[in-house]
Amino acid sequence: MREILGMSDEESPYLQQYPPVSPFLHAVDHPMNELERCVLIGLPGAGKSTVGADLAAQLAWSFVDVDTEIVRATGRSVADLFRSGGESAFRAMESRLTAELCSGSHVVVAPGGGWAAQPGALEGLPAGTATVWLRISPEEAIRRLGGSPQERPLLAGADPLGAVRKLALERTEYYSRADLVVDVDGRAAADISRTIIEWLRRDIS
Fold first, then answer.
1. How many CB atoms lie within 10 A of CB 10?
2. What is the pTM of this model?
């Protein structure tokens, strides 16, 4: 079965409030010698960038944060890109770059939180890709984001927590298709990345 690592289903605040569409989650075995890349998905604030950088360092792979790369390539902030072209234009750019990155090997990729909900995003990943959902409660996500929610286009407004809860409800169906689910509430990035590596290497003796 797919493992939900970090806490049991009963203990997970995310699962209690935002249960996956299917009550049964099945694990996908990914022997390390068959893996070429890892894609991290999850809500804003889940730690995709921090965990991704630590995971890549431990694997001696490269790491790319897709939003950061888009900002570097365009010279414009994500918020500005949303304002000028809208979310659909940004998602198209994000999808193209993620596909390009996933054509390489020995790389950990962290797309934006909405990437996984785009049609065919997860299904279009090449063989040899492990997908990991960093599952976080909306409350913990807002706590981690601190004073920066307004910098996130989809969280701007008077009720950022309500916005994250709405995203959680909309995206859980897609996030739950990941090969591995890791609960991250209250956990440090290094601990989370170690958990992922243990899962990746469990079939290697």
1. 7
2. 0.82
